[in-house]
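Long-time lurker. I teach an intro course on protein structure, and each term I like to show students one example going from raw sequence to a predicted 3D structure in token notation. This year I'd like something fresh instead of my usual example. Would anyone be willing to generate the tokens for the chain below so I can use it in lecture? Attribution to the forum is fine with me.
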Amino acid sequence: MFTNSNYSAKLAPTMKENWLVQIYKNNNSSIAYTDTPDLRLSLSEAIYDGENYYPAILNKPSISYSLDLKAFTTKTGSVSLNIANFDLDGTTILELLGNEYINGHVNILSQIDDDATAANALQIFSGKISSFGYKANTIVMSIISNRPFQNVSIPNAKTVNATNAQYNNKYIPLIYGEYEPNTNFTNGQDVYACPFLKNNGKDFIYIIPENTSGSDKLEFYDKGMKRFIELTGMTSTGITTVDGAKTLAVPKSMTRQFKMLPDDVTTPTVSTGFALVGGTTLANTFNGNTGNNGTYSHSASFSSVSRGVVLKLVMPQATGKITAITLNISGTYSQDVNSLGSNEGAFFNLSDSLIASGGGTGFGSTSGDVVLVNSIKTNQTNTALPTSTDISSILDSNTLPDELYLSFRFNAEDDGSYNSASVLISNMYVTVTASNDLDNEPIASQEFNAGIDKLYLGRDVVGESFRPHSSIATLSDLNNPVAIHRELLHSILGVTNFADDTDIVNSGFKTVAELRDSTADSVDSLTTTHWKTRLELNEPQELESVMNQLQYEGCFFFEFSPQAQQTAISGVNALRYFTIPDNPTATVDLSQVDITGYELGITDAQSLETHLFVNYKKHPAENQYLKQEEYTASTHNTIFGSADVQKQEVSLDYVYDGIDESGTTRNKSWVNFRKSLFGDYKTIVNTTLVNPEKYAMLQVGDFIDFGEITFEELGSPFDSISDTFDSFIAMPTRLFKDAWSGKKFIITNLKRTLGKVQIQTRQVT
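-- Reply from a regular --
Happy to contribute to a lecture. Here you go:
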């Protein structure tokens, strides 16, 4: 909370309050409360900071502030002034007002007891002139709050080409957040789109965002495989500037090499007695992890038959021409033999079909096989399987065949005899190199390339341009909703930078960012909380809607402070970030003598969020969300009778982690925050505050409580006061079935007029 000790020291029931209005022309860059305004008006005659203020305001204006708990937005209402058309140095106000006053800045200050010292007043409004008119010798002026993000779209950076207009005005993507490239077996979706710019005759040029870091390669999204694949044939991973944009170049062949795990592996054939042993599962054989495995074993002796296992590999089909392909296996095999003939032994093959072999068991084709191991007749103990085998011979027109069978056959079909045999498989995958066939299929390749209007990249964009806090600089990394919000204000709108650490603390940024970022270990003991956030914009969107969405998903509020131009007082910054902490502290404690009248209510049933489906983590290439969390309140059946009622589906576009965590702490996760506010009904209290010592420093978003304490409970010397007066101190009724004490309320609406403040509050604890 901000403080103004000289102002607050004068607050008393008998005080005299006056409002001072400072109006600056739109070309005036000096608009602090201590600067000389172009127009100085007031409700009653006043001298302030050495200047006379003209008592020309005819109406009794009011200022309204509000916040929307559901949407996490704030709003300051417009102020209307009726100004007498008085003569000012030989010119009337009507003759004075012109274009230079439209969008001119306005400060409104509260002055107590005619105190003319600048710092002893309190700024209660900061805004701009929206319009003015004239009627019956009166100027009617409408003033709105300062909202510089209105009518601004992002991204707003575009390409520029002086000689070829077709390469102009392509949007440069605006990207913030942490990303993960896809290499080896990684099959994630943590990349962002980079749009196509041009074909320079040799390479395809793609636009990448500003301020990327790293050297990771562009990736191609294979729609058939549903996978992002690294492009290995890039001329360079270094960034070059083309047409005013940062770019990466890719050769037209779009060569891509990747390790492709099977989508699934099944066992269409396991010969008698051969079984998966050792407490492992078949999935361990193709999960990309060599730290676990699956073992097929036959521990009993056998002769005159073949024993073994056939694994059917269900492989995704790669797009483009396969120019090289190998089968990779990590594992070993063992065999204990008595005797084997010339056509017997261990035979391991990869085939595109199955046929019957000796003993009536299908182990593969008799022709067209890829031979991995052929007729090993000696005893073997944990012998390595072939780690890499070229399997291009079984390709069908440079694509994988529809079916692939990997067979491990131990043959004793003639007079041979085995004591035992086994195969251990840690991992198996196919390494594929694919490209566009520009020579043999130029038309198909052109159509293929024409359809690639974007590639993808996994480089981080987390470097902020605003000043970070010196002791916890990582709070400003662009990987949480609060830091991204602040970056937009600074880099897009040029909003004043933080001057120092005190500035950052006074703005509320540090407190709110700590609640959304795991780097702050001491905040409410939330050592693992991190509301991970990414912003990816490729097409223009309204900046205001993006900022509002960040506030909604990040569960925090933002406003340009009403004290924006009075930074000399303690605890004030031009920006104001705030949220609802887990254990809010009341700014004031109200009793019956501080208010006049009050109304009680509860939140309506329609506003409850008792059954939520939260979609999050947007797919970077397809129109879908990759994850969903479901939350059902324990009171659902009590309130609605069934969990099938009040189902709501919510989609988060920016926050992709920290959605649902266990525990009861409000700021632990997104779902925890919502259920603490909307999972059960809450009490609403509306009242008018008449005690200036309590209301004068309040803001929307402050927390209050209502006391039940009496003179008797205060102890000596107050307990000697007659009990008759107790009823004038404590709140006289119950909060429906609950006590007033112990409850905290957030101010959701605050209307300030001369001599009183009306508030609407909602229970948060």
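Some talking points for your students: The longest strand covers residues 404-435. The chain is about 10% helix and 40% strand.
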